[in-house]
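User: Can you predict the 3D structure for this chain?
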Amino acid sequence: MPADITPAPPAALADGTVDLGAAFGRFAAAAPDRLHLAAHSHHYWPDVVWDAQNQALTDAARYADSKWGPILDAVMPAVQRGIAGFLGLPDPASLVFAPNTHEFLKRIVSCLPTDRPIRILSTDSEFHTFSRQTARWAEDGLVDLTLVPTEPFDGFADRFGAAASARHPGTGAPFDLVWVSQVFFNSGFAVEDLDGLVAAVPDPETFIVIDGYHGFLARPTDLARIADRAFYLSGGYKYAMAGEGVCFLHVPPGYGPRPRDTGWYAAFGALSAPRSEGVPYAGDGWRFMGATFDPSGLYRQRAVLGWLADQGLTVAAIHRHATRLQAAFATGVDRYAIPGLRQADLVVGLDRPARGNFLTYRSPMAAALHERLMAHRIVTDVRGDRLRFGFGLYHRMADMPAMVERVAAAARG
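Assistant: Here is the predicted structure, written as structure tokens:
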């Protein structure tokens, strides 16, 4: 497509959704009896990833040992530009990649002090990548965790901002790390004012990390004003529709110049420089790179980002599509008055615009409902007493009445 031509967005239907289900034909045809309502967990991949995956194989065969040239010179920069464009980042070179976000967590923490417990401020609703690892570190006294409850959601931003401004409650010293989700995985509640959250952290030395795994390509996100202050991480497994192995981190300039957890890729840009006494690092975001990785996820992500650009599809349109489907689903299922699937059971109700692209129902019956649905090939997921339904571009409003009826029939047992 010529650079001076802006693609027209896909025609929005009268209800505000789009009809792109046909673009996910391979996933749909592979299991035609499956009703997949877990776009927040494992999003279907659009058909364009098939050619992208094959291209990764073709390039490996064609170039063999030299395949890293086209990967690092063409494939990765295209993904960096695409992600930077969706997030309003001024410099695509601030983005680095890893197979999972756990690598980034360890690398970020490896920049922090080692002569005392690391002071961390976070919430009680972070995803397992963060919550499990930090809890284990806390068992050994390596970190000192201060967790702010996310509920009640009204006033969360004020409570979290106050905690950040007040510094560490035990020592009165600044926090070393502030880590918070853009959209909380166990509820769907979204932090709308990321700029305000960052501004609430008073000490410029504090690392700020925004976990955007449920935000990237799900909610419109503009990091332009905080790009020089906050880290942002996400990946391709969920809304980015590219699958495993392609997570990314935006690295603000100057923060963590020499991570202790480091792989040989972190020296790119410094490999040709004269050897110094210390271990060399790249000067841009590459200092947070690890070691050799499977590049096929980058091929898939490049294809998805290119497809979205060709469609002229904005994140605002994606989010609008999902929230319209949420409303139709929750309203439709509510009419059946199924315990655990009533609107009153929603953790974040339809009246709250600050939510992600999935619905979370809270009920002691959540696990039983999940099992009933799975027995009828209806895919959701459950976290304790919370049952989650996610909606993506492969869902169509025209199919919603049948989807609601099928879910209701299965849930009633």
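The chain is about 35% helix and 15% strand. The two ends are 51 Å apart (CA to CA).
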